[in-house]
Amino acid sequence: MATVTHNGGSRVTTRQKCYDVLRRMLICGQIAPGSRLPEIEWSERLDVHRGAVREAMVLLEHDGLLRAGEKGGFFAPLLGDFEIEEIIEARSVLETGALKLIAQRKLAKEAFQPMLELCETMQRLHDADIELGFCEADFMFHQALVALSGNSRLIQMHSHSAQLIFNLSVVDTLDVIRQKRSATLTDHREIAGMVVSGDIPSATMRLENHLETACKEFL
Q1: pTM (2 decimals)?
Q2: Is 65 exposed, middle or buried (0-12, 13-18, 19+ CB in 10 A)?
Q3: What is the DSSP string of the chain?
Q4: Distance CA 137, CA 118 (A)
Q5: Which residues form the HTH gntR-type domain (predicted)?
Q6: In this predicted model, what pLDDT tens digit does every residue of 134-192 receive, in sequence order?
Q7: What's the pLDDT score for residue 32?
């Protein structure tokens, strides 16, 4: 197993690796709600020192993506652990704020390519009925949108803000799931197109409606 040296940079890097992996799995519903995350087990799975896993889990608790048990340990949250409306409101403020900054930057067309490519990735995953992959690409689209702002503080705030965990919604039929995926993809394509064309007011309105729809699905 790889060990963490006393070097501060190595410890931060290892902790960040644990944080990134666990956060992505939690957000994309790859860890069952309510399940415990044993530190020893995850240190072995991630091939890192137990201390780095513990530090990452403390950060994830701070972000609202894990909850601490009364008798110790960390657990994946249940739907009731989230204030859905507050999360959506926070995301709306951050992401629409990013749009305002994007408008000021006068970016070259090439800068939008990662965001546009994620739409194509979502299309392929939707066609293949790969739900978890689609959810992860959905999350990455919003990250790519905020990254275009060029504001490192805003990007960090968005990255560490509590996100919706996709598999906490009510159980839907496959047809309903496909309809929701299709609607999400349509929203993303429209938002991306408006951003690329410089129509920030329309992109802002579309993004707000998109997030409001996501909120209603969880309430």
Answers
A1: 0.76
A2: buried
A3: -----S-HHHHHHHHHHHHHHHHHHHHTT-S-TT-B--HHHHHHHHTS-HHHHHHHHHHHHHHTSSEE-TTS-EEPPPGGG--HHHHHHHHHHHHHHHHHHHHHH---GGGGHHHHHHHHHHHHHHHTT-HHHHHHHHHHHHHHHHHTT--HHHHHHHHHS----GGGSPP--HHHHHHHHHHHHHHHHHHHHHHHHT-HHHHHHHHHHHHHHHHHHH-
A4: 6
A5: 12-79
A6: 988 998 999 999 999 999 999 988 887 756 555 445 567 889 889 999 999 999 999 99
A7: 83
Spell out the long-range contacts of 52-55 with Cβ–Cβ below 8 A and sequence spacing 24 or more. Answer: 52/4, 52/11, 52/14, 52/15, 52/17, 52/18, 53/18, 55/15, 55/18
CATH architecture assignment, domain 8-79: Orthogonal Bundle (1.10)
pLDDT tens for 107-129 read 999 999 999 999 999 999 999 99
> Which residues, 6 or more positions from 71, have their beta carbon under 8 angstroms from its beta carbon?
none
What Å distances lie between residue 178 and 17, 75, 136, CA to CA?
32, 30, 16
Give 57-94 pLDDT, tens digit per residue.
999 998 888 999 998 999 998 766 667 788 888 899 99
Q: Does domain 83-218 have CATH number 1.20.120.530?
A: yes
Domain coordinates in residue numbering, the chain: 8-79, 83-218
Classify the phi-psi angles of 194: left when phi > 0, otherwise alpha if psi is within -120 to 50, otherwise beta.
alpha
